[in-house]
């Protein structure tokens, strides 16, 4: 830097550097918290810096900005327009001044369009403020070529140097403070630019306008022009009025016209992706022809203008808006509707307002693509195949070309071969390719692929072909044809693209090969590493051919009347007819199956897991936010069960696929190579081939062992936790039961009864009266009432009124009991005990645990005489009050587990037992207290005994009402409520699963990258290798059994000729050690399973009326019932429950691996033996190798 920014002196004191010699400094609040921003400003002020809060005054800008484009964006968002100091002008001129410099035709020299790269908005033409006479002024800002942008001329104190500013990383300040001197700026400069005037906009005149809607719209558009924020008066005022980041500044409000305000029609219902503010296009669908297609076409033109003017931010912003509008299922009726869509702001709304007001449905900014002479030429050059936006601008501004004729006449030799072909077939490449023609091209290429690989058969299929691109998206016409060819055998796809292109060229289908990439074949079918050596060419990581296609079949009959005066060669040329078929662009891409197998499956499952977790988190209710579990659905229980079942099916499918790919990669890692086999044979040992083997780990590298172990460890969470990632929760409603008279009057009552009523029933008397009078209560017969409320978990009903035959019951009724009361899991579940309080003693069932429980079946048998006991909500009773406690005869047992001293609790239990007698009076109680010897000192002096008339009834049925009053039930009145069953997910478990999935993807990618040659995946691979290159250790010992094979290594001796061993049963193929391990583990698992089943059967029997098999079977599978709940556990944590419930799956998985290993050994031995067997009149079958190598040579 040559201006005074680089001449900052290194003045400093003992406490740090002094910034007094620095120009005005502005601190960008972006990415800075309020505390950090305050500390930075205090640090600058304490060191005599010239700190400003008006960015227009600053020449040095500090911030946490790392990219030049972002720096320009931040400056523009604050009203500072800049142009980058160009240091490459001279280099570009020198580079292009070669021997093939084009000679432009004599045309008028035009100044280059000065384009600002970044924009948070879509620039002034999006506001609709450009007139037809000022179109050019908005698209370019003339700048003479002779202006120097070199730094040596940038700074001279005032003048031009005063317009230069620099955006510097905040680390510069830290370095200065740490070194106690002003360090050079150069290493920390992110963006160096010159301030320029803001582009001219349509002046805000005060001329009179008509009162039509279009004029009002134009005035509204003028008001929406961007204006810089007001400058605060002090640094503290900025902290008060400005957010820490400019990205949080609220957007400008859309200005509505009078006609819009008159619209009263409601907006259509918003789609779910709009409600959830989903911005990503991959999470929503869009039709091929959306309702707002004409408006989208206008936005596409504006986006193309942004592309031609190198405005990358504008291109990205318009792409986001277009994708959002394309997915919207309704036709826009007013601009304000656009503001509800994610990714659409006031600019898009203003453009739609202009589109709506125009007679022909166009936007002035979009029309510039066709009307503006500069943009029209740039667009024409851009449509040349092989020419991008920068090259198109180079043609126009540097080479001074104005049309395709100029390109051909003055610059043909300077074009690349691809660009020459693009110019030659310019019109033909712009034509759309209909779908039927795409299908015909795909069939021809597929046929030639199988012609050049005639023996490439896998499961009866050859090379597979998939058409992608616009055809796959459903377009009627595609710009080009994109095809992907693949095969499961990697040897088939190697150099396949070369053979296909050669075959097609021989028949005349391909006229030009634009590009031919052999990257994958040259890498021996290995994939690129993550962010490979050339991160800018990920598309070139596959074999591909970019070709020009033309159908060679046409009517080429000779011209019957050639010119008579032409020579023979000319006459022959005249007879040949030109091919009239259009030229098409076709891309043939080869994807090896190895790159689209395990890695793609694992990565796809990882993407689905992340996507499902994001969707679940977005749907989670705010009230249920928890890292352990969150609710994603609450409502109908049947729907919740279907959701849960669907999720578990999906989870099991994904888990099975992922574990299968992991198992395959583990087998690939443990597969030995020929080099490994020769090495261990030379040392008198052997390896397993074609079967999963832990013994092969000894020949694996440490990288393979680490990957193998990670694949094993990351499989455990899928066995143990994956099923518990989503689960359902059942909601049971507690309810109060009230007995009422036949005419059912529910009126007002005294305050004591009303308070007890609300406490016991859960609703006050007024609410129940309103439901009764409004006929909101459903009338049920006695049978239906017993069936509805005799459920273990009541989900859809609450308050119950029993209409009795007793007309003496006064308002508001009598208390019968509480159903489904909240109790501990360990307590006996008796949810409808109130049903069995009648005189019939056989309504209860005696259980094995010595407890009794009300049986719904027994109540239904006695439904005709069904009666219940009831008591008033409030009654007289003796109350005993002491220091810190009070109780009656009905609730004294509640103090048994209170925090009172042990002696006090024991005394209360003794006194409560005395009060249970309904005939005791206050005097009797006082006499009893004085006559007893209590454990608590001076216990009798602490007590106050009195009679109260406001004691509420209790929901405990341990005490009988004396004398009991029975009330016969006639029918019921039931309150129906919505169900609240829930589907929940565990963010903690999902996070563990995603992390393990990601580790598996990385391990699989590393497995693919490991380059090992001549691997023995199958027995056929080994036989093929040993036939070509015999093993010296086993030479001459072709057919020996397992026992004799081991002796070859332990005691080498000459092998005598003998007959082959006799055929044996399959179980002899498995070693004794493996059989012993597998059988032992099976016996252990069966024993444990039998023991757990026995304990469960005995435990459930304690809560069943009988322990018959039919009764236990009637409990069903996956049904939540009180009888099958786990009780008396130390914890009911979700993770602990998930681990406990999935332990059997881990055991079954271990059994699967052992049995799979045994079966694999048997099949491998059978396959190996089958290679020596002959059928009558035929050779043995072909080898089954990993490369599908067919051979008919018998084994000798």
Automatic annotation (TrEMBL):
<feature type="transmembrane region" description="Helical">
    <location>
        <begin position="1134"/>
        <end position="1155"/>
    </location>
</feature>
<feature type="region of interest" description="Disordered">
    <location>
        <begin position="219"/>
        <end position="269"/>
    </location>
</feature>
<dbReference type="InterPro" id="IPR028207">
    <property type="entry name" value="DNA_pol_B_palm_palm"/>
</dbReference>
<dbReference type="GO" id="GO:0046872">
    <property type="term" value="F:metal ion binding"/>
</dbReference>
<dbReference type="GO" id="GO:0005634">
    <property type="term" value="C:nucleus"/>
</dbReference>
<keyword id="KW-0472">Membrane</keyword>
<dbReference type="InterPro" id="IPR018944">
    <property type="entry name" value="DNA_pol_lambd_fingers_domain"/>
</dbReference>
<feature type="domain" description="BRCT">
    <location>
        <begin position="165"/>
        <end position="190"/>
    </location>
</feature>
<dbReference type="Pfam" id="PF20163">
    <property type="entry name" value="DUF6536"/>
</dbReference>
<dbReference type="Pfam" id="PF14716">
    <property type="entry name" value="HHH_8"/>
</dbReference>
<feature type="region of interest" description="Disordered">
    <location>
        <begin position="86"/>
        <end position="160"/>
    </location>
</feature>
<protein>
    <recommendedName>
        <fullName>BRCT domain-containing protein</fullName>
    </recommendedName>
</protein>
<dbReference type="GO" id="GO:0006281">
    <property type="term" value="P:DNA repair"/>
</dbReference>
<feature type="transmembrane region" description="Helical">
    <location>
        <begin position="984"/>
        <end position="1008"/>
    </location>
</feature>
<feature type="transmembrane region" description="Helical">
    <location>
        <begin position="593"/>
        <end position="617"/>
    </location>
</feature>
<comment type="similarity">
    <text>Belongs to the DNA polymerase type-X family.</text>
</comment>
<keyword id="KW-0479">Metal-binding</keyword>
<feature type="region of interest" description="Disordered">
    <location>
        <begin position="553"/>
        <end position="581"/>
    </location>
</feature>
<keyword id="KW-0808">Transferase</keyword>
<dbReference type="InterPro" id="IPR001357">
    <property type="entry name" value="BRCT_dom"/>
</dbReference>
<feature type="compositionally biased region" description="Basic residues">
    <location>
        <begin position="131"/>
        <end position="144"/>
    </location>
</feature>
<keyword id="KW-0812">Transmembrane</keyword>
<dbReference type="Pfam" id="PF14792">
    <property type="entry name" value="DNA_pol_B_palm"/>
</dbReference>
<dbReference type="GO" id="GO:0003887">
    <property type="term" value="F:DNA-directed DNA polymerase activity"/>
</dbReference>
<dbReference type="GO" id="GO:0003677">
    <property type="term" value="F:DNA binding"/>
</dbReference>
<keyword id="KW-0548">Nucleotidyltransferase</keyword>
<dbReference type="Pfam" id="PF10391">
    <property type="entry name" value="DNA_pol_lambd_f"/>
</dbReference>
<feature type="transmembrane region" description="Helical">
    <location>
        <begin position="702"/>
        <end position="722"/>
    </location>
</feature>
<dbReference type="InterPro" id="IPR043519">
    <property type="entry name" value="NT_sf"/>
</dbReference>
<feature type="transmembrane region" description="Helical">
    <location>
        <begin position="1075"/>
        <end position="1098"/>
    </location>
</feature>
<keyword id="KW-0539">Nucleus</keyword>
<dbReference type="InterPro" id="IPR046623">
    <property type="entry name" value="DUF6536"/>
</dbReference>
<keyword id="KW-1133">Transmembrane helix</keyword>
<dbReference type="InterPro" id="IPR027421">
    <property type="entry name" value="DNA_pol_lamdba_lyase_dom_sf"/>
</dbReference>
<dbReference type="InterPro" id="IPR010996">
    <property type="entry name" value="HHH_MUS81"/>
</dbReference>
<dbReference type="InterPro" id="IPR022312">
    <property type="entry name" value="DNA_pol_X"/>
</dbReference>
<dbReference type="InterPro" id="IPR002054">
    <property type="entry name" value="DNA-dir_DNA_pol_X"/>
</dbReference>
<feature type="compositionally biased region" description="Low complexity">
    <location>
        <begin position="106"/>
        <end position="119"/>
    </location>
</feature>
């Amino acid at each position: 830097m040559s201006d005074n920014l680089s001449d900052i002196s290194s003045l400093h004191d003992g406490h740090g550097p002094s910034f007094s010699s620095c120009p005005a400094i502005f601190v960008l609040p972006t990415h800075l918290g309020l505390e950090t921003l305050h500390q930075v400003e205090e640090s600058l002020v304490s060191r005599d810096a010239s700190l400003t809060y008006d960015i227009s005054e600053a020449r040095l800008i500090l911030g946490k900005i790392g990219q030049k484009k972002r720096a320009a964006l931040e400056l523009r968002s604050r009203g500072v327009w800049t142009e980058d100091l160009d240091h490459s002008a001279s280099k570009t001129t020198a580079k292009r001044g070669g021997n093939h410099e084009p000679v432009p035709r004599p045309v008028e020299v035009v100044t280059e369009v000065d384009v600002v790269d970044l924009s948070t908005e879509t620039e002034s033409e999006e506001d609709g403020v450009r007139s037809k006479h000022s179109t050019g002024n908005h698209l370019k800002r003339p700048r003479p070529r002779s202006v120097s942008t070199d730094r040596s001329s940038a700074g001279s104190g005032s003048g031009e140097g005063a317009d230069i500013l620099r955006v510097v990383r905040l680390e510069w300040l830290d370095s200065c403070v740490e070194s106690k001197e002003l360090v050079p700026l150069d290493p920390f400069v992110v963006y160096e630019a010159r301030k320029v005037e803001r582009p001219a906009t349509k002046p805000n005149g005060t001329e009179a306008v008509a009162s039509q809607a279009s004029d009002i719209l134009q005035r509204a558009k003028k008001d929406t022009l961007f204006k810089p924020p007001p400058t605060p008066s002090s640094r503290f005022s900025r902290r008060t009025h400005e957010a820490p980041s400019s990205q949080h500044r609220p957007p400008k409000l859309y200005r509505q016209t009078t006609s819009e305000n008159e619209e009263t029609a409601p907006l259509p219902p918003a789609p779910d992706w709009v409600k959830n503010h989903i911005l990503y296009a991959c999470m929503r669908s869009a039709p091929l022809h959306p309702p707002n297609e004409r408006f989208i076409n206008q936005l596409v033109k504006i986006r193309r203008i942004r592309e031609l003017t190198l405005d990358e931010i504008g291109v990205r912003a318009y792409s986001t808006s277009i994708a959002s509008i394309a997915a919207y299922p309704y036709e826009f009726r007013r601009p304000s509707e656009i503001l509800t869509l994610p990714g659409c702001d006031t600019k898009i709304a203003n453009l739609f307002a202009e589109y709506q007001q125009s007679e022909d449905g166009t936007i002035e900014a979009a029309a510039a693509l066709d009307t503006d002479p500069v943009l029209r030429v740039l667009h024409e050059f851009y449509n040349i195949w092989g020419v991008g936006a920068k090259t198109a601008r180079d043609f126009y501004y540097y080479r001074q070309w104005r049309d395709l004729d100029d390109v051909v006449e003055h610059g043909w030799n300077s074009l690349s071969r691809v660009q020459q072909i693009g110019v030659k077939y310019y019109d033909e490449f712009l034509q759309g390719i209909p779908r039927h023609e795409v299908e015909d091209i795909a069939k021809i290429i597929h046929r030639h692929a199988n012609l050049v690989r005639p023996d490439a058969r896998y499961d009866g299929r050859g090379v597979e072909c998939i058409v992608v691109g616009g055809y796959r998206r459903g377009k009627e016409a595609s710009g080009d044809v994109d095809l992907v060819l693949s095969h499961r055998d990697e040897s088939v796809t190697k150099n396949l693209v070369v053979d296909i292109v050669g075959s097609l060229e021989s028949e005349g289908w391909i006229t030009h090969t634009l590009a031919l990439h052999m990257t994958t074949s040259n890498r021996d079918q290995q994939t690129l590493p993550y962010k490979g050596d050339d991160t800018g060419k990920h598309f070139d990581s596959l074999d591909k051919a970019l070709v020009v296609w033309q159908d060679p079949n046409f009517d080429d009959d000779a011209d019957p009347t050639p010119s008579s005066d032409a020579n023979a060669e000319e006459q022959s040329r005249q007879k040949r007819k030109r091919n009239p078929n259009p030229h098409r662009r076709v891309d043939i891409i080869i994807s090896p199956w190895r790159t689209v197998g395990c890695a793609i499956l694992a990565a796809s499952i990882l993407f689905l897991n992340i996507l499902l977790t994001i969707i679940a988190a977005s749907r989670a209710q705010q009230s249920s936010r928890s890292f352990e579990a969150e609710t994603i659905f609450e409502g109908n229980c049947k729907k919740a069960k279907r959701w849960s079942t669907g999720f578990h099916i999906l989870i099991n499918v994904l888990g099975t696929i992922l574990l299968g790919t992991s198992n395959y990669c583990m087998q690939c890692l443990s597969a030995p190579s020929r080099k490994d086999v020769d090495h261990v044979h030379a040392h008198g040992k052997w390896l397993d081939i074609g079967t999963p083997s832990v013994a092969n780990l000894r020949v694996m590298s440490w990288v393979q062992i680490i990957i193998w172990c990670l694949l094993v460890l990351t499989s455990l969470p899928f066995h143990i936790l994956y099923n518990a990632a989503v689960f359902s929760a059942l909601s049971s409603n507690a309810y109060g039961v009230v007995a009422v008279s036949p005419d059912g009057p529910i009126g007002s009552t005294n305050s004591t009864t009303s308070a007890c009523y609300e406490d016991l029933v859960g609703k006050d008397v007024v609410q129940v009266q309103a439901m009764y009078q409004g006929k909101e209560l459903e009338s049920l017969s006695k049978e239906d009432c017993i069936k509805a409320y005799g459920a273990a978990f009541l989900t859809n009903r609450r308050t119950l009124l029993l209409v009795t035959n007793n007309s003496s019951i006064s308002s508001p009724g009598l208390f019968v009991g509480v159903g489904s009361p909240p109790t501990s899991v360990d307590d006996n579940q008796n949810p409808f005990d109130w049903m069995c309080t009648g005189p019939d003693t056989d309504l209860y069932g005696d259980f094995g645990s010595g407890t009794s429980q009300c049986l719904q079946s027994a109540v239904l048998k006695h439904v005709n005489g069904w009666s219940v006991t009831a008591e008033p909500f409030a009654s007289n009773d003796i109350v005993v009050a002491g220091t810190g406690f009070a109780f009656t005869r009905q609730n004294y047992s509640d103090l048994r587990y209170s925090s009172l001293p042990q002696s006090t609790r024991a005394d209360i239990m003794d006194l409560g037992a005395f009060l249970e007698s309904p005939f005791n009076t206050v005097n009797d109680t006082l006499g009893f207290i004085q006559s007893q010897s209590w454990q608590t000192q001076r216990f009798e002096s602490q007590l106050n005994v009195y009679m109260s008339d406001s004691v509420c009834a209790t929901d405990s049925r341990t005490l009988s009402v004396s004398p009991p009053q029975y009330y016969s039930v006639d029918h019921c009145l039931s309150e129906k409520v919505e169900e609240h069953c829930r589907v929940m997910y565990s963010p903690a478990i999902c996070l563990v699963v995603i992390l393990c999935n990601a580790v598996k993807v990385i391990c699989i990618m590393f497995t693919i990258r490991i380059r090992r040659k001549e691997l023995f995946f199958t027995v056929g691979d080994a036989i093929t290798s040993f036939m070509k290159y015999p093993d010296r250790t086993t030479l001459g010992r072709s057919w020996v059994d397992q026992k004799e094979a081991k002796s070859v290594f332990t005691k080498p001796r000459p092998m005598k000729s003998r007959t082959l061993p006799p055929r044996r049963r399959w179980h002899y193929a498995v070693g004794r050690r493996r059989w012993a391990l597998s059988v032992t583990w099976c016996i252990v698992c069966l024993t444990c399973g039998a023991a757990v089943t026995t304990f469960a059967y005995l435990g459930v029997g304690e809560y069943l009326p009988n322990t018959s098999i039919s009764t236990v079977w009637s409990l069903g599978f996956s049904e939540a019932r009180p009888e099958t709940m786990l009780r008396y556990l130390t914890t009911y944590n979700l993770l602990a429950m998930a681990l406990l419930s999935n332990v059997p799956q881990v055991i079954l998985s271990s059994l699967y691996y052992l049995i799979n290993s045994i079966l694999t050994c048997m099949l491998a031995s059978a396959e190996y033996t089958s290679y020596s067997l002959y059928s009558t009149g035929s050779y043995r079958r072909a080898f089954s190798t990993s490369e599908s190598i067919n051979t008919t040579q018998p084994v000798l």
